[in-house]
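Structure request: Formate dehydrogenase beta subunit, Kribbella capetownensis.
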Amino acid sequence: MTIRVYVPRDAAARSVGADEVAERIAAAATAHGQDVQVVRNGSRGMLWLEPLVEVETAEGRVGYGPVAPEEVDGLLAAGMLSGEGGDIGAHLGVVDELPWMKRQQRLTFARVGVTDPLSAEEYTSYGGMRGLREALARTPAEVVETVVDSGLRGRGGAGFPTGIKWRTVLGAESDLKFVCCNADEGDSGTFADRMLIEGDPFTLIEGMTIAAYAVGASEGYVYLRSEYPDAVATLRAAIEIARSKGWLGADVLGSGLAFDLHVRVGAGAYICGEETSMLESLEGKRGQVRAKPPIPALEGLFGRPTVVNNVLSLATVPVILAEDAEAYAAYGTGRSLGTSVFQLGGNVARGGIVETAFGITLGELVNDFGGGTSSGRPVRAVQVGGPLGAYLPVEQFDLPMDYEAFAAAGAMVGHGGIVVFDETVDMASMARFAFEFCAAESCGKCTPCRVGAVRGVETIDRIVAGEDRKKNLVLLDDLCELMTDGSLCAMGGLTPMPVQSAVRHFGKDFGA
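Returned structure:
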């Protein structure tokens, strides 16, 4: 009997030796005459346990991790291939029963870490293509309204209702429409887009094809950052497989729908995470923000109506169509419906991916899932929503992960990145970094962002040096107000958020 052993091909796992572990298992099993099939799956998201090895047994997939290449022979001798080795430190038990996994509600990430990412057969056997087939059995307008009814909102950061955007594109008159996926995942502490593309690329392809059918688009583009070479290779391979299966091309699933996908690799500009800058880059121009209106839904790529969504937004659409809107909307709270993929990073004991319904508190994510800091010191601050997100103190750990609750607290959920800092962090330095980052990454099109960020660095330096501290704190506040109200896009408009939250919650670091 062939024993299936799973070793992740995810970039995070490979960076700590997963390739060597996979090779060692295959070689050792052959040397001992054991029939083993090593499957390179995506990561389960428990990054502190990578490389995580899973062995298929009658009781379920038993995990071992982290496993170093030199430990493989000892694990095999202890009975790893039969799921044994309870007395070995790396032995974890059935992976699906681990508290980290059991507490989650994985919808978008249902197959990530479970299947071979480039196996079309495994994709369909685990429910893949059900959403697209269901969509093709409905009218485009019905598909759009299903997405509206689900309450799905943009996972890229803005939280705009996905279905409303699609409805606008559907209603636009044009002989050519596009679907664009923004996979330029540049926020600090975020890696969910990469993990999904490397671990379950077909679900993104399926989601984009559903979007194309719903709005009448015939071409799709995934704008993927150059820092993700493994994701680029995986997605391109998946697109070729999808074409060979008739999931893309001139006649998708025999429905008459003509839709094809292309990958475009960005050069690493943070500003291209903003939708209009991404469109400029896709057109071969410098990544600069466009003034709105017109909105991309009416005049997007090459001036045509365009759906622009994030990876997680599009990858969630298949499960909504497969299970229907009400089932998805049953998760979450208020206007934040469904699940979100939260990413734990920074000074945290257990970093990784947590997909759960909106409404879980920040404290539950940091303490229960994350296990506090990796340094063992008390948590002092957490930044949520990327480098332009607010810094929140532990006193706000009861804040629910909910778009409206965060907005009321002067913060944002953003792309779901959560970066943890312990008591040694200097918050004045972190506020300065926000301005410094903006100065480096600004597209330069508008003055408040281009000049304001530089002046912000200078002002914080004067405050920290004790130079007219009170006067400069007032000046800093005025500068933040100007950038918020006067910037052309969220790059300059949100830079004040981390600065003002740092001053508000950690004033002592500024001498206030």
